[in-house]
Specification:
Length: 127
């Protein structure tokens, strides 16, 4: 049997010579396990660095687009100050319903009611 790729022949011979006992961990297996443990944070850091670089490139592109818009605003109304225009917070939809799904469900319930009252007062027992 040939040694695995990346394993030294000496380590492989030592691994093959030892009998398999529950308390024994071969140096090859220990090295292989620690190699994965050591490599995982490096790979995670590399992925995170790549995401940060992509986000920075996207921000730089948006800044250029913003500068282009501001120059257009100043060209048509030179007395306007684009820095005084407030930013708009993006609308974040809820996670429970899709786009226009809640209104569709409400309308469907109204159609199925067939004229019966669905007000909260009709839910409580009559007093």
């Amino acid at each position: 049997m040939l040694p695995p790729i990346g394993c030294s022949a000496v380590l492989w011979r030592k691994h093959r010579a030892k009998p398999l006992v529950a308390s024994y961990i071969s140096p090859y297996l220990a090295e292989m396990a620690t190699a994965h443990v050591r490599r995982a944070p490096h790979q995670q850091r590399a992925r995170m660095a790549r995401e940060i670089e992509a986000a920075e490139r996207a921000i730089a592109k948006r800044r250029e687009e913003l500068a282009t818009l501001e120059s257009g605003i100043l060209m048509f109304s030179p007395d306007c100050n684009p820095d005084l225009i407030p930013s708009v917070r993006p609308y974040l939809r809820g996670l429970y319903f899709g786009y226009r799904e809640l209104s569709r469900l409400g309308l469907d319930a109204m159609w199925r009611a067939e004229g019966r009252s669905r007000s909260p007062r009709s839910w409580s027992p009559a007093s």
